[in-house]
Amino acid sequence: AVHFFGKGEHLARILYIDFLNLDPLDIYRVLRFGTRKRIPLPNIMKSGKMLRDAEVMEIEKVRDLYSKLSSWSVFARNHGLLESLEIIAKESGFWGHIIVHLRGQEKLDGYNGLIRNIEALVEAHRDYTLGDLMEYLDLLKEHNVLVKKTRRYSRSPSVRLMTAHRAKGLEFDYVYLPGVVWGHWGN
Prior knowledge:
The protein is mainly α. The chain is 58% helix and 0% strand.
């Protein structure tokens, strides 16, 4: 929605994101109004009059989201990708949502894994943009590739599978090395 700012189909997809705190009935009213009147969604969200005509109850929340999206779009076109993502995560309410979420640490680990992947992309391509990131994420989704998470802790006992080189220095209580025979792998 930030990268494709102004395109209603991208905007409509994000309206139900829980940390944006929009009333589902207000979202329905905005979408229904736009469909019936054939008015683009961004135009409705920007206009207090149209939001009143659509019988939206929390007009300022809808207009505030429009204003933030507009601001983030301009910011993303004029600043680095990582800086843009940080501003969006902070101002959208994403950080607050993660902090209070029951699985907050797990969600934070996933986000940190994504940021590390993005840092690697930016390091390799200095001019990496939000649009480039959207293409990259679409490619990951298309090929069903998961973003690697960083794990700070485990909620329950589990088995972690990894190479010997990856496990080096992690100091597990128990380590199983299947398929290792004398003379095949060290002493």
